[in-house]
Design a protein that fits this description.
This protein is of the alpha+beta class. The protein folds into three domains: 105 residues, no CATH class; 95 residues, no CATH class; 135 residues, 2-Layer Sandwich (Nucleotidyltransferase, domain 5), CATH 3.30.420. 40% of the residues lie in helices and 23% in strands. β3 and β4 form a beta hairpin.
Amino acid sequence: MTMTTPKPPEPATPLTVIRRVDLPVLKPITPSDVWDDFRKALVEGLDYCARAYNTTLAAIYLADIKQLAECAPGILPKIVWPNTYLMAVKACPLLPSGTVSSLDKLARDRYRGKNSDGMPYRVAAMRGRCGLPSMRYGSVFPIRAQEWVKQAYKDEEGNIFIGLPLLRPEKGVLEWWTVQLRTLDRHGNKRRQANIMDRILAGEIDAGELVVYRKGKNKTVMVGVSAYVPVDCTVGNRSAVVKTGRTFFTVHIDGDDKDKLWFYHNDGFRRRAFAHRSRLERQRHDYKFEPRKWRENVRTGMANAASKHNRRLDNMLHNASSWLINFCARQGVVTLVYDETDKSFGEVLPWSRLRQMVADKAEQRGIDVTFVGYEEVEDD
């Protein structure tokens, strides 16, 4: 009988978060160090990207309109869109295939997205609630990671250089421009995002797509990179107790003085919650005086206001839980007691959702959390 040796356990993969690294371009290097030449090539490349993006957007919009004409009133057609990638390639043959694919996906995701009122753009466009030009924008030049990483390097002085494939339609060729990124701020200190870029070039973390765009009134040329940054787990042996109450969070860390407390007030939520309740109350009063055939407009407004408030609430809960866990991680806390016995901050707050966010973020940072003062079944 042959003995088989067991395989060693695979090392645990570290948790990663997707972060955006944005750095401005300091100056072009090659094939020309003149800013006017570089800006002209960038504008021509962005115009080509806008053409590919708008080709995809117009094709899926026309497909929806044709299907809508064949459906019964009040019924929305299923999503059956043509092969817009081939249309974009035919309209913009000079663009790299990876750039066309990214723009095609961007247009489809943008068309499926939602506006500030929570209504899907696809439904709003077909019902005439918004025009197609409101979704058109072509101000980015995406480049796949497999292409730009090969053209990026760092010199001995710590300067970062990246190659950008910009178009010259009048020449009918694709030119690689080498640019230097600005890694220092106005005070001469190294930018924090430049450290992530250094780790990307060193091969420590994985990089995603690169995007070239212009920002602000001065049209500053920016380079944005998506990076998969590993989360640093907490290293320490301290414990902390966080309590809810009239103040959103009150934190006491073991080893500090009893009178030394850390507070997180979050007063903005009180104002927004009060304004939201007041607005719904006024709309309910108006609803009683509206004729029955016009009440649909009032109900739609109330639903849109509630949807916007819920999205703001989720954002507030994420910010509060991130503040708490990041603060504990910086203080070297490994054991956290979360006491929510006192809920005087707001009974309408979804405490169970906040508790789940705290648990998820604490698990990512390696912090053990014990929850106190909550019921197993709540009507949040």
